[in-house]
Amino acid sequence: MIPRGSLTRDSEAAARDPEGAIVKIGIIVGTGMNDLAKGLEWAEVSTPFGYTVTATIQFGGREVVVVRRHGPGLNVPPHLINYRANLWAMRDAGVKPVLATAAVGSLRRPIKPSTLAIVRDFIDFSKRGNLTIYDTPGERLRHIDLSRPYCPLLSSVIEQAAAEIGVELGPRVVYVCVDGPRYETPAEVKMFAKMGGDVVGMTSAPEAILSRELDMCYGSLAIVTNYAAGFGEHKLEHDDVAAAAKQLQPTIRAILERAVALIPETGNGCGSVD
Ligand SMILES: [Zn+2]
To answer: Of the candidates 97, 117, 98, which has an alpha carbon nearest to the alpha carbon of residue 108?
Structure first.
């Protein structure tokens, strides 16, 4: 068991050298993005919240720590993902900015399948009980600020990367997060849209929350793979969702690679984290 108290000092020192350089960048690879994670050498990492696996690679000219969200075997469903271990392992490896991809369903007709869009905010409908690393009585009490849940700097960097390689992104979106693994009902989809949601998925809120708790910046590129339930005639199938995301893999890989290269190597960050 790793004492949780060692978090701030040790990993903060690892994340930035004395001049404030960003040494390592994290990428969380989601559904349909298997090619990005193919052939990597995975190493098991022990955290206070259990084990996960990471791979460290050179990508975009930088050192990047990769986590495969659904596990190395791609068989961990969203509600069983060990988000705390995944994010803790990144922080412990010295990661400061985290980029993620997220397959989502569209809640609005104008947001068409195959759209790529930056996530700007979330509404969390998940009922998970472990969305904090501060879950032990007597530990430091911490209520994180989520006025800007997704890093404005990373979001701009992803947009710039897309523009540079000629990919037009959709408008920034609000992500409704649900537990899954089931898809939503048509009534839920209507409700989510009325409440201000643009897309729905099962993973982004935990990652945004835990990244902030661990003082890492988090930016997410949503991949609209389908319309949510109630828009069309067809049943929603996971294989279709994964296949839709997979088609966009080369584009997303190129955006991420350019984005990684564009992340400033020095500076005091975006001000969203302490
Ligand atoms: Zn930031």
So the answer is: 117
- How far apart are the CA of 184 and the centre of ligand 1, in A? 31
pLDDT digits (tens, 9 = 90+) for 213-248: 999 999 999 999 999 988 876 777 777 777 777 788
Instruction: Give the up-direction half-sphere exposure of residue 263: CA atoms within 13 A in the CB hemisphere.
Output: 34
**How far does the centroid of ligand 1 lie from the alpha carbon of residue 210, in Å?**
13
Q: Give the C-alpha separation, 120 to 155, whole Å.
A: 8
| Ligand 1 center–CA 22 separation, angstroms | 12
Q: Is the pLDDT of residue 6 over 80?
A: no
| Residues 6+ away with beta carbon under 8 Å from 261 | 60, 61, 62, 161
pLDDT (0 to 100) of residue 189? 95
Look at 136 and 107; give whichever has higher pLDDT. Answer: 107
Domains and CATH numbers, the chain: 4-262 (3.40.50.1580)
- 53 Cα–ligand 1 center, Å: 24
Q: Which amino acid belongs to residue 95?
A: V
pLDDT tens digits, one per residue of 82-93:
999 999 999 999
Instruction: Report how far residue 30's alpha carbon sits from residue 7's, in angstroms, rounded to the nearest whole number.
Output: 26
Residue count of the chain, please give it: 274
